[in-house]
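Meet my pick.
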Amino acid sequence: MSASIGTVYPATMGMLPTFLAKIARKFPDVRIHISSGNTGDIIRSLESGQINLGFIRPVENIGCLRFCSIAHERYHLAVAHSNPLASREEITIDDLRDQKIIAFNRQNLSFTERYFNEKFEEYDLTANIAYSCDDTYSLVSLVSAGLGIGFAPEWTLDLPNRAFELKKVRGIDFRIGLGVAWSKDDPTASRDDIIDIAKSLARPGR
């Protein structure tokens, strides 16, 4: 048995290893190819039949594909260990006024980027954006280097040798989903078993 799986970063760091271990127990001779990408790339690969299953962010229109939500990731403020905010019990968004901000800046903003850009505009913090980057790894690397603060998903807590803390910010309660998608027309053998294993990863209260 063989299968191709596409995944966004959060699944790669979090549930993908558990998912693969479950498949290996059920199908000891399985051969799996894994490719990383963004949600749009993975959807196109599913539609063209290049991959059989995709871990993606929720989208408004998924066409002929099927989608099952399995988790939500909260975003918190990433601050370097050396930043005074790291020892604060409570942080408000106004506390960011004397901070340099690291933000996502992509040509086609996802819901995540739009949300935080709107918050920065709402609190007149846009001028504080000193750096912009295209991915979460770059953002937390800049934070770790003490160059500024930025909002990052919970999965970054699992990064090895991290030099930053994730802190809650009053008034910011942002969560974005993660789920599994597949094509209903995919004829792959044991496809339904693989989908059931993916669905079993769903976290309570997702």
The chain has two domains: 2-71+176-199, 73-174.
